[in-house]
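Researcher: Structure for this, please.
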Amino acid sequence: MKRLAFVVLLIMSLDVLAQTELAPGNHQVIGDEVIASGSISGEIKTSDGLPAVFVTVYLKENNKATVTDDKGYFSIKNLKHGTYTLEISMIGLKPQNRIIDVKKEQSASVIITLVEDEKQLTEVIITSGRRLNNKPVSIGKLDVNPMDLPQSVTVVGQGLIRDQQAQKLSDVVKNVNGVYVTTTRGNVQESFGARGYAFGNYNLFKNGSRINSGSLPEMSSIERVEVLKGNSAILFGQVAPGGILNMVTKQPKFNFGGEVSMRAGSYDLYKPSFDIYGPASSSVAYRVNGTYETAGSFRDMVSSKKYYVNPSLLFKLGNKTELIAEGDYLYNEFTPDFGIGTLDGIKIPDVPRSRFMGTAWQYNKINQGTGSVTVKHQFNDVWKINSTLSYQYYHRDYYGVERVQADSIGDWVRPLGKILTTENYYTGQVNLIGKLNTGLAQHNLLVGSDGERYFTSTNTFSFPVVTGLPSSSYDKINILNPGKYKQRTDIPTATRQWQIDAPINRFGLYAQDLLKLSEKFNVLAGLRWSYVETMALDSFNHTTNTIKTGVTKTDQAFSPRFGIVYKPFNTTSFFTSYSNSFVVNSASRDINGEPLEPSIIDQYELGVKNEFFNGKLSANLTAYRIKNNNLAQTAPFLKDGTPNTNSTIKQLAGETTSDGFEVDLATHPVKGLEITAGYSYNYIRFTKTDTSAGSFKTGERLVNNPLHTANGTVFYTFAKGVLDGLKTGVTVAYVGDRFAGWNTDVVKKTNAAGQIIGPLTYRSRIFPVKGYTTIDLSAGYTYKKVSVIAKVSNLTNTLNYYVHENYSVNPIPPTQLVATLAYKF
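Model: Predicted structure, token format:
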């Protein structure tokens, strides 16, 4: 009833909001003095009549600037009456000037047409250097100038994704300072972390809707990747505090064009792709892109194949309303690979990089489909509304040997594992956005609600017993000497036992206001109310036809957010912020089968953003502290003391604190030269734990989090002479020393009666992993409609590992070559 009442109230309010207009000539009265509050607003189009997006609009007289939104609109407010010079520019375009007269208590409106058409402008956006602080991100739900936002923002555009020929999301993330790959468990997915905390399954988004992180996203359809670092729980609810990552797919266009390409590379990589867009009518545009990929691997017996398609339609439903319908489908089949494992759980073995420890028959098959409908409506100059409904289907069928944990001499009993999981995920959100003036302040107001429904069905399996080996075992091998034992080749029968259905419902209401109190001060304040219902788990046994029903658990909390921005100059902003959130752990159970309590998170952040030399140099510095009162981690052992292989069985590990800072730089000192660089420091450790068995050691750093990371790219485009059309670049990424395995925990000794004897002691299960640096070289040449790009990755053939706990140790790829031939039409 609360949800229904809110929806009805929101709908009733829309008619009132639709009548709200900014009176021409808004003004402020102080005593008997009237201060003029004029403005300049307008629309910038390309020569073919399409919106010119993300173009800089600059007032020379008072050094004010803004950027056009995704409709080509801009607005500069709080102007005294007088004459202004409006400069419209973008790197790579010739600036255009327009003289505008602003009168008292009036708004000047202009329509400006660029010389370039939409295709030329798109090419400039793709190839030109981008500043750090000049492009709003759609994941923030508001069109906010990053200089006005008390939060760190990073955008990796399609140009860089293309130049680097990104195959995986990790190839893109290496450009985001402070975000890093934590693990690649079984080489079936990539897990990321930031500021000491794992992104988990709830911090990855596509077009603003959550996606399952259990698959490797296809990058050929991605227009850009947006990262909001820090706590964004007020906007999205149940998210880890490290950051939010949103992938934005390519959108339909009203001019015809496209591209076909062929990519080939080391280890039998072949990848044909296509991308076609254009108008279906004067009010409908389309786009469809897709790819097929087949590849081998530097790992013996490992291969993969993939099919992907991404269609979308854009409907112009009048001048103020548009509807976007989009979807994609991914089928990915590949060999699960747990790498080279460990000896005694604490030592990485010295074996060839290519040695595969699995079987020839093991497989992992993923079917994933998404669909969404987004409606955007502009009521007037003040109010607009966006609403999205989306659906995701995820199905995983996996079978193989796993968890490479050998003894000190390399003997390993290979355990069997099978996963059959289906997930249906429904989500909806409504966001009402208003830009208005009241009294002394300008408001950028967001009021919204979102709802989610997860329904996950998982299965457990039993396997034939092998004489002389533990249950669920396949055979025994030696990872140091593969010829020591004869290996099995047959495929054991897996018998389904329990099917577990887990429904989860989430609902949230939120409001946020970015108040511009003056030219120098902004205040951001917001509040979210979240309600999470983890319904009773229904378990059905297929062998005995018995049913078990669990207990429904509900959690709810308020999450506040507050920030201040001080801008002594238009090119410099200092900010500080505080946010509080909670993460529900109700999808997990402890070793006794009981639900876990939520984790409460406090985050403090401060920083400075700078634009120097008319935007030729961007320099940002951010520092933070994040406290999690009780971090949930996978329990290492079950109640009977046997190793835990179920990632949903967790324990509350105690308080963790993450301190750190990040430095980001971007510059384009001369035409054609683009340089970006970043460095981050993070120190996350346990700061308050108890002494019960299984608790962790206070003061110890958490595993999988490097103390230092750094990144840098340099690209240069030749524009004259015989080298015209040539672009070269280098990408460097550094991941510092980190710990792997399991964090040190408390153990206890007991007698036959179960009584504790002797003092509690710590058990060390942690081991260090050295830092490493990779270097990639890129070169591309474009002649008219044909382009070719080549890349040599890991130039120095550096050897290092992604480590998940102590059983999935995957070597990073060696030196490889990849090249793409493309034709634009």
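Researcher: Any notable elements?
Model: The helical segments are 2-18, 118-127, 158-163, 169-173, 233-236. Residues 163 and 708 are 26 Å apart (CA to CA).
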